[in-house]
Amino acid sequence: MSVTVGIARVTFRLHDNHSLKGKRKVVKSLIEKSRHRFQVSIAEVDDLDVYQRATLGVAVIGNNSRVLNSVLDRVIDYMESLGLADLEDSDIELISL
């Protein structure tokens, strides 16, 4: 049996934000709404002290790489569709163990 881990790194630009407090509100909303809709792990992983950028890591585990890639694509599309921040960049990596 093979195990595959899907990882996405998603960077958002928060144009109208002027404080870390405002950033935390947006990041918390992105994380909570995405976790509620999808069964994935999400955390802020970079740019912690930059108030106009948020970088989130998303992880999912399974045995079908196509399904995992699709899930990560849908999570990224969903986060972008929320309109809370502008999607700046995203990368998906699948690791088979």
TrEMBL record:
Highest taxon above the source species: Bacteria
Pfam families: DUF503
Name of the protein this chain belongs to: DUF503 domain-containing protein
Originating organism: Desulfacinum infernum DSM 9756
